[in-house]
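@channel anyone free to eyeball this complex?
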Amino acid sequence: MTSQAALPAAATREAYGAALLRLAREGYEIVALDADLSASTGGNKLATEFPERWFTVGAAEANMISIAAGLAATGKTVFAASFAVFMPGHCYDQIRVQIAQQRMNVKLVASHGGVSVGEDGASAQAIEDLALMTALPGMNVVVPCDVVEAEAAMVAAAQDAEPWYIRVGRPKLPVVYTESAQFELGRADLLREGSDVTLIACGLLVEPTLRAAETLAAEGIEARVLNMATLKPLDEAAIVEAARETGAIVTAEEHNVIGGLGSAVARTLALQAPTPMEQVGVADRFGESGSWQSLLERFELTPQAVAAAARRAVARK
Amino acid sequence: MTTTEQITQARDAAELEAIARRIREQIVRMTHAAQSGHPGGSLSAVEILTALYFGGVMRHDPSDPDWSERDRFVLSKGHATPVIYAALAEAGYFSADWISSFRSLGSELQGHVVRGRPPGVEMSGGALGMGLSFSVGLALGHRLDGRKARVWCLLGDGELNEGQNWEAAMSAAHFGLDRITAIVDRNHFQNDGAGTEIMRIEPLAEKWSAFGWGVHEVDGHDVGAVTQALCAARETDGAPQVVIAETVKGKGVSFMAENPAGWHGKGPSDAQLAQALEEIHS
Ligand SMILES: Cc1ncc(C[n+]2csc(CCOP(=O)(O)OP(=O)(O)O)c2C)c(N)n1
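replying in thread with the prediction:
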């Protein structure tokens, strides 16, 4: 993928309705399910052209997931959407047994991930969904950084027969990629070359991490930046290479520091290439109400926090 | 020391209507200040909370929110924070000055209910479908402790899509809990639109009675009738009771009531606030 900001700011969740319509128009045998949040997930867009392919089950996430599994058993490519707190939160066992264990062709598109949900507060802010999803055998887990990558990931998901969890977000974010971007599951994307430290980010933290790299460059620290959109299967080779070539690692994610990108990278490093590492993420606490920008400050999910973590990591080399 | 009589003292009808108007005003003010929040499903529940807190239905003491003998009010539809915050402020649980901080960083008034914050909120929520089971737990605990305290649980009709409600309903009847009353805010709309299109729940009264509950149906905007229905539920022994309150999502603000799907979760503009206040007080 090339990185050059060109498109107007957009929320990663906006990719969903567009991807569904595109897939259906191109002849993919998709169906989509929503659980009373379709205006927010964008899933209802499918119904504008393909009403028979879209089912609303009401506020009933467990029912939705088991229905999705049944539909997949009839050969459909099934998309199911809700907020990341409710899916997986409200339907974990259904996902575990009926989607993951049965390896069903179901794509879970979880919107409103992380604390950037904003004013709705703690109960609405998923900070543990990636831990739950990456721990399931066979589940592919993707956290796109912008609307372009999100749509490309959704299309790639439809072309694959395995279960996927794709986490998207509520706020409008700067776009990192150009329209022609491709997505490849399990491959880290090198956004910036550097030899002093590697910054590994996913989702909403990718663009602030690029800004942190600029700050660091002005200080004489050359940071490599990897967009690790796929948390599972993890691009371990890119992580080990970064560790060997730059000698210091920072991870940045809108998720608890336990069980997300940082944990996965730390595990890889500990097993294959022990290297000084620092984490930027939610410090094992629940979210709260506030504007999403104020919450990113409060939870220290900012370019400044990434740059500070990079300085600490470099100092430990 | 406040006595039980003082605590449960009912206000007269005119006073209840004035209280309901003030609660409506706070709901629109709060969601306007936050430019977010859930006005529609708060406005539909105004008379229900007015009856509970001010109609002599619930035993509670605003000066002692942790009073062990208090009745518990559980807001299962935990997004309807504007109505519970307005009612609690009106009752004196906390200063009305807090209202303007609704949903802002560091506020005591979080977007969805948080237990004990502000005082008077009994359960954290925001994920639908859990409150009635929590209420069953409270009622079982009270029974073990020999307490007379009652549990009042407000459910949304869209919320009833969640299967856990029916697990809870089954268990309340199974355990023979007759100090628990569910109240359904039957406003016919959920997040995505009308229940008839999103997920039908009729026949609703029959469902509850099939699960072993006594059923009371009432006009949810007639505060006197709501008070009576809740009292009737309170006086009925032997089985859990449900009050199905027929309501209008957005009640009291014409542009919200006419477009309930558009006013599930957003705050009014300056001009809309002005119009809403005028309608509420006319
Ligand atoms: C488990 C869960 N799923 C989805 C949501 C998102 N949500 C918030 S309110 C709502 C609609 C609820 O409808 P209803 O209970 O009728 O509430 P009311 O219309 O009275 O506001 C939904 C789906 C949620 N809060 N919890």
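from a first look: Residues 14-167 of chain A form a domain with the Rossmann fold fold (CATH 3.40.50.970).
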